[in-house]
Design a protein that fits this description.
Layout (H helix, E strand, L loop, with lengths): L2 H67 L4 E8 L7 E4 L12 E4 L2 E9 L4 E5 L6 E6 L4 E7 L4 E7 L9 E4 L10 E8 L8 E8 L8 E4 L4
Antiparallel strand pairs: 1-2, 1-12, 2-5, 3-4, 3-12, 4-5, 6-7, 6-9, 7-8, 8-11, 9-10, 10-11
Length: 225
């Protein structure tokens, strides 16, 4: 028998033996593969849960700050937005049965969110401070100049500020004493002082809200005054 023939026989024999081993081991591989897939699925699920918990940390910390400033406030979770963004209204999971009342102020640890405009037994609607129909008493904290804060859909516009007020970008704007808020809750900061028209008796400015209103998950409803 030539060396070539011997090599060919050995190759064929080895190939057959390898095929038989593969067939014998296949059930074990399938079982191991199923086990690894199950473990992988479990790890992905746990990872998703941890990421979700981590994402909730800032909102929880923010709510804790608000609760510290307003111990009697009612904690609530945002459960709905206007899907068409025609109005800036949120739905929260607290209602009349929880003690929520119409016109109550709503805040986070960063500042003003809006006020309650509709109350059902188990839920309520919050008119966000940037809504075009929102108006609330406001004060330029540095000089104690009074104004009315009106929503512009994206920000808040200070109106009827005395022409003598020396407004500056960065000025803190807080709530004035009113139906929904006590004085001093942060609304935001001035980002633009609008030019004063000739003969005008007042001036206006644009305020960037202190609260990120596009990413709310937890809020605090203030006790009705």
């Amino acid at each position: 028998m030539t060396a070539f023939v011997q090599t060919a026989i050995a190759w064929v024999t080895g190939g057959v033996r390898g095929g038989v081993d593969t067939v014998v081991r296949t059930p074990g591989l399938a079982s191991e593969n199923a086990r690894l897939r199950a473990e992988n699925t479990l790890l992905r699920t746990r990872n998703d849960e941890l990421l979700e918990r981590l994402a909730r940390v800032p909102a929880a910390a923010d709510l804790a700050d608000a609760k510290f400033a307003h111990p009697d406030g009612i904690e609530a979770t945002v459960i709905g937005y206007d899907p068409e963004a025609a109005t800036h209204v949120l739905t929260i999971d607290r209602g009349a049965k929880d003690g929520v009342r119409r016109d109550a102020g709503v805040v986070t640890g960063a500042g003003v969110v809006g006020r309650i405009v509709e109350v059902a037994p188990l839920s309520s609607k919050v008119l966000v401070v940037t809504d075009a129909t929102s108006k609330l008493p406001a004060v330029v904290q540095r000089g104690r100049w009074w104004a009315i804060g009106v929503g512009t859909s994206t920000r808040v516009k200070l109106q009827y500020v005395s022409q003598d007020a020396k407004l500056r970008p960065g000025d803190r704007i807080v709530t004035g004493e009113g139906r929904s808020f006590h004085a001093g809750v942060l609304i935001g900061r001035i980002v633009q002082v609008e030019p004063v028209n000739a003969g005008a008796l007042d001036q206006s400015a644009i305020v960037q809200p202190a609260v990120d209103l596009s990413a709310l998950s937890r809020v605090l409803v203030l006790p009705q005054k």
